[in-house]
Amino acid sequence: MKLSEYQDLYGKLATAEDIDFLAENFGYDKELLLVIYTQRIVRDTTKKFYRVKAQARRLAFMWQNGTSLVEIAHRFEFPAILTSLMVLEQRKVSRKQFWKMINDLDSVRDRRLRKELEEVARADIVYSPEGSARQYARGRWGEAKLQTWLDSRDLQYETEKELRAKYDKTPDILLHKPIEMNGSRKYWIESKATFGDPYEIRRHIKKQLLPYSDLFGDGAVVYWFGHVDDQTYALPEGVDIVRPTFFETPPIPYPYVPVSETRLEDAGLESDAAGLPE
Questions:
Q1: What pTM does this model have?
Q2: Is there a domain that residue 120 lies in?
Q3: Residues of the chain with pLDDT under 50
Q4: Could you give the number of structural domains in the chain?
Q5: pLDDT tens-digit profile of 9-21?
């Protein structure tokens, strides 16, 4: 995807409803749109976090005086789950208690609170338990595709889980023997079940691809939902972005269902809002 097309799409994904509109009117894959929408929400939330948190007492006052949690979130243009967390923290509910309530709404005795938390979970498709489960399941889906490709060729490898005991930084796949990819020998492969825009790729280079290159040598990363391909990236020498078509032709898309129908057992849901600060 070209940068101009991505920026246009990113700008149009202002609300969850825009996902269906763009899919139905322009033919985009819904899961791709959900991925990009999630990126936008997470980035916007990170920028706004401290500004909104500074007004937590005001949020709590509004709720105490009858404004619903969803309405407060709407007014502050902030995710409903995180808005609710800030409100309830002002009422001496810990983060751990909050996530327990969100994941088990039947345990919430206060009728108003239970009803509003149900509304919050439906409204927030990024930070809700279902949203977290979807992101987790998507990641496992990408890793499974990669492992299926390797297994079908009888290639031996270690997974990230197996490597964690040995290394601080671990790619998804470390091959026992290097394989030829893009004209060079690769020792490791990183699976990304997301879209690689310039921001995301730069972040991955700094936090993952550079350390992997230093530890294990040449490698590759695959963005299963594609990437912005008309930009130059400062990838470590010997590290390449490999298209999904290298592993599947044509690529098999993620089976889209509404986030509200995502199975919660797909994830360990002690989510803490995508690593947001305290």
A1: 0.90
A2: yes
A3: 266, 268-270, 272
A4: 2
A5: 999 999 999 999 9
